[in-house]
């Protein structure tokens, strides 16, 4: 749903061979709609919960790679916004993304004779500057930005490139109502939506543009219908 569904629709306007959707919730109507948009593309669905152990993810990926042989791009897009669910927010938004990425390296890493690949991680503008009333959610998105930047720098070793797309506030069910940390601001959703937002389709169009640009290490900001490359300031360097 939301950005994920609209982005899938935009992708199907391109010359794809396969689109594989992994989701915890089965939505036959949405899958049927996607299949009808471009019959030339093979659209398949697999049930998947990003919070499962890496071994389980690897087993599923082995099945998918066995059928398709080649996968070019992995989009990590699972996310929840509810600072009452601290452990689950971290598990879905960050741990699940890290684990899924780690699992696919078994098939992509050039040190294991893999072909390499491209990872597109969905972050958020809150990864740059937090919505301070939801520090758990914002913290996970900052972690996604840092993790992805590290992946990009590791590309010469692994053969796997990476970048983030970071949407601004987008009018999806995710932001219609959500809980702040320790209820510090019960009206956080209402106050947030009082400011300018963007529709999911505008976000999806720029999302696919970012995928097509395919710039390793890029930090894309997708806000108010625009696509902008963010330059990250270096305040410290490990020197190694």
UniProtKB/TrEMBL annotation:
Catalyzed reaction equations: a primary alcohol + NAD(+) = an aldehyde + NADH + H(+); a secondary alcohol + NAD(+) = a ketone + NADH + H(+)
GO molecular function: alcohol dehydrogenase (NAD+) activity
Record carries keyword NAD: yes
SUPFAM superfamilies referenced in this protein's UniProt entry, alphabetically: NAD(P)-binding Rossmann-fold domains
GO cellular component: cytosol
Record carries keyword NAD: yes
Domain of life: Eukaryota
Gene3D superfamilies: NAD(P)-binding Rossmann-like Domain
Keywords of the record: NAD, Oxidoreductase
EC number of this enzyme: 1.1.1.1
GO biological process: alcohol metabolic process
Family: Belongs to the short-chain dehydrogenases/reductases (SDR) family.
Record's subunit section: Homodimer.
Protein name stated in the entry: Alcohol dehydrogenase
Underlying gene: jgw
């Amino acid at each position: 749903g939301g950005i994920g569904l609209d982005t899938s629709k935009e992708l199907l306007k391109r010359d794809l061979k396969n689109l594989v959707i992994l989701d915890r919730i089965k939505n036959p109507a949405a899958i049927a709609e996607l299949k009808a948009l471009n019959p030339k593309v093979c659209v398949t669905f697999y049930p998947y919960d990003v919070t499962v152990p890496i071994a389980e993810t690897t087993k599923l990926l082995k099945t998918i790679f066995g059928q398709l042989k080649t996968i070019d791009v992995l989009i990590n897009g699972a996310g929840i916004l509810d600072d009452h669910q601290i452990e689950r927010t971290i598990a879905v938004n960050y741990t699940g993304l890290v684990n899924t990425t780690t699992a696919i390296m078994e098939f992509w890493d050039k040190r294991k004779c893999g072909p390499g690949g491209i990872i597109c991680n969905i972050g958020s503008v809150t990864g740059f500057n937090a919505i301070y009333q939801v520090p758990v959610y914002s913290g996970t998105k900052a972690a996604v930005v840092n993790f992805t930047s590290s992946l990009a720098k590791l590309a010469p070793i692994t053969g796997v490139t990476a970048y983030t797309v970071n949407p601004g506030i987008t009018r999806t069910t995710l932001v219609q109502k959500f809980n702040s940390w320790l209820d510090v601001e019960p009206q956080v959703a209402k106050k947030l939506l009082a400011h300018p937002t963007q529709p999911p389709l505008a976000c999806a169009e720029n999302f696919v543009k970012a995928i097509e640009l395919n710039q390793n290490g890029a930090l894309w900001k997708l806000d108010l219908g625009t696509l902008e490359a963010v330059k990250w300031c270096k305040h410290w360097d490990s020197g190694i």
